[in-house]
Amino acid sequence: MEPTTLLLAAGVIIALAIGVYQFVRLKARQRAAEAVHHFRCPGCQRRLRFRARQVGHKGKCSHCGQAVVFPLISESVD
């Protein structure tokens, strides 16, 4: 292969790697900035955390395994 082709291929690979890295960093920063709320499990009273996007969705208590529905943010405890 010609050196020009190799340099071009290396440049494309490096540019893609930088793009993927920046995308992953942006998503991690967005997730970290999202507020966390808390509520009590109706079964064991353990304090569980949830994010605003989970309101109304079903889940399980990580301690006792009881099915829970994530409450409205106004019903959260801190």
Which SSEs are present, and which pair or pack?
Layout: H1 3-33, E1 36-40, E2 47-51, E3 58-60, E4 67-69
Antiparallel strand pairs: 1-2, 3-4
Describe, in plain words, how this protein is organized in 3D.
The protein is α+β, with helices and mostly antiparallel strands and 78 residues long. It has 2 domains: 1-33; 36-78, no CATH class. The chain is built from 1 helix and 4 strands. The protein has one helix at 3-33; strands at residues 36-40, 47-51, 58-60, 67-69. The strands form 2 sheets. The chain has a two-stranded antiparallel sheet. A two-stranded antiparallel sheet has the order 3-4. The chain starts with a helix and ends in a 9-residue tail after the last strand. The model has no long low-confidence stretch (mean pLDDT 92).
The number of distinct β-strands equals: 4
pLDDT < 50 runs, ≥5 residues: none
End-to-end distance, in Å?
63 Å
Which descriptor suits the 3D outline? Answer: rod-shaped
Number of domains: 2
Write down the secondary-structure element order. Answer: HEEEE
Could you give the order of strands across the largest sheet? 1-2
Q: How many whole angstroms does the radius of gyration measure?
A: 22 Å
Largest sheet, if any?
A: 2 strands, antiparallel
Helix content: 25-40%
Mean pLDDT across every amino acid position: 92
Count of individual helical segments = 1
- What structural category arises from helix and sheet content? alpha+beta
Q: How much β-strand is present in the residues? A: 15-25%
